[in-house]
Amino acid sequence: MISGKVVAISISKEKGVPKENVEEVEVLENYGIEADAHAGPWHRQVSFLDLKTIHRMKELISREIGFGELAENITTDVDLSIVDVGDLIEAGECLFEVTQIGKKCHHGCAIFQRVGKCEMRTHGVFTRVLRGGRLRVGDPLRIIKKNRVEDGTS
Q1: Rounded Cα–Cα distance for residues 99 and 103 (Å)
Q2: What is the DSSP letter of 18?
Q3: How confident is the prediction along the chain (154 residues), in pLDDT tens digits per residue?
Q4: Which CATH superfamily hosts domain 2-144?
Q5: Judging by beta carbons within 10 Å of its beta carbon (0-12, 13-18, 19+), is residue 151 exposed, middle or buried?
Q6: How many CB atoms lie within 10 A of CB 15?
Q7: In terms of Cα–Cα distance, which of 60, 99, 63, 79 is closest to 7?
Q8: CA angle, 143 then 55 then 81, to 5°
């Protein structure tokens, strides 16, 4: 099992802008984070990014990157490069299904203009909410692999 924790939670009222950090949120089943612009009945309800990607961005642009600045909802200390579409992410009371890895980013978006690069294009993990509930900074997080091999057989 791959486990870690929720390092930051970020929300915004509009798309394409840095998100504000909050200590806890209400996550709504098949909708997303209450009061977040990306919530709705679609496949990218909640986005995840890992610390490794944020640190890589800091090195690339030689300045600090704040949590939520790349428009991610959830920042985790788990390396998300191991996640595949269909895998599950359990965080706090909530359960998320990975629906997309990376996204098209238009060069005119506010994040690209401000930062000069957008890691959500290649490293963003997008999910839909299978089980809602409260989610808090510091909550445990674990990755549940869809095609996990337990004893050498699939």
Answers
A1: 11
A2: P
A3: 799 999 999 999 998 788 999 999 999 999 999 999 999 999 999 999 999 988 887 777 777 888 998 889 999 999 999 999 999 999 999 999 999 998 665 555 555 555 555 555 557 899 999 999 999 999 999 999 987 654 444 4
A4: PK beta-barrel domain-like (2.40.33.20)
A5: exposed
A6: 11
A7: 79
A8: 30
Which residue from 69, 43, 39, 41 is spatially nearest to 57, judged by alpha carbons? 69
Domain ranges of the chain: 2-144
In percent, the amount of the chain with pLDDT more than 90 equals 64
At 56 the three-state DSSP class reads helix
Distance CA 66, CA 119 (A): 13
Structure tokens at 133: 């509930």
State the DSSP H helix or E strand holding residue 57, giving kind and residue range, or none if neither.
helix 51-61
